[in-house]
Design brief:
By secondary structure, the chain is α/β, with parallel strands linked by helices. The chain has eight helices and twelve strands. Strand 6 (130-139) and strand 7 (147-159) form a beta hairpin.
Length: 268
């Protein structure tokens, strides 16, 4: 670790992110997990594939659910953003670059370009042509010259409630897309280049959706679009409190994503 030995250096420390060692200010190490395991996703290799043209998927009503990895990224970036908001003299660019709300809005806007309607909360009786699990991971670079990388994975799935697969998994895998983006931290390090990295990853997806469409596995026994009617009446015993049952759907008919995530993560 380098130390600034000149007295004048103390005046520029905030703008240089703790002497240029970003990771020493707030931990950016995230313990990412396998979302396939956490969301209990399984694949049926016997299913046939079908390619859907861009003009067809543009008509779809899609439900997007974020994985736990996405929540872990939000927490890490939130801590970084809070640090730089409070840091006197920090460059406004680093504050904007670590603002998860603007990144999240960018992720949503990208999907809304590709589909007819995108929902982020399941609603009882509403129909969805596609369910998409979004996994967003970020590894910020530690100092100038180092590289920030983001990885964005879309899992396209069936909900298995009420189907022949319900006893073995929570989601049946239909297909997926994965993309990475990266950016090199400038000198002085006025940004993690997070937005540049996200833009690069999203550009790959948008190009794929608009030119290639989607190739998905299709089950003859699961009709589309899927409704959440069956899920609405579901209750389960939370692992953290075996003596209490919880309802998945609130009184206004909205499916709680937090409760849904807990349900999906329960051990079979």
């Amino acid at each position: 670790m380098k130390k600034n030995v000149l007295g004048i250096a103390a005046a520029v420390l905030p703008a240089l992110f703790c002497s240029g060692l970003l990771a020493s200010c707030v931990s950016t190490n995230v313990d990412y997990a396998n979302s396939g395991d956490e969301m209990v996703i399984q694949q049926d290799s016997s299913l046939s594939e079908k390619t859907f043209a861009p003009e067809e998927i543009k008509k779809w009503n899609v439900l997007v659910l974020d994985t736990e990895n996405t929540s872990r990224t939000e927490k890490m970036l939130g801590e970084l953003h809070t640090f730089f908001v409070k840091q006197l003299g920090a460059d406004d660019r680093i504050r904007a670059d670590t603002d998860y709300e603007t990144i999240h809005a960018k992720l949503n806007k990208s999907l809304e370009k590709c589909f007819n309607k995108v929902s982020y909360e399941g609603v009882s009786s509403e129909s969805y042509d596609l369910i998409l699990l979004r996994d967003f991971q970020a590894v910020p670079g530690s100092k100038s010259g180092k590289t920030t990388t983001v990885q964005l994975t879309y899992y396209f799935v069936y909900a298995t409630v009420g189907t022949e697969y319900e006893g073995s998994c929570q989601f049946l895998y239909r297909g997926g897309l994965i993309s990475e983006g990266s950016g090199v931290l400038p000198y002085p390090p006025s940004s993690y280049r997070l937005h540049d990295s996200v833009d690069a990853a999203l550009g790959v997806f948008e190009e794929s959706f608009s030119t290639e469409g989607l190739t998905l596995c299709c089950s003859d026994t699961i009709s589309l679009p899927q409704q959440f009617t069956g899920v609405a009446s579901t209750s389960w015993v939370p692992a953290e409190n075996p003596g209490q049952k919880s309802r998945l759907v609130s009184d206004d008919g909205t499916v709680s994503v937090d409760l849904l995530r807990k349900k999906l993560q329960r051990q079979k």
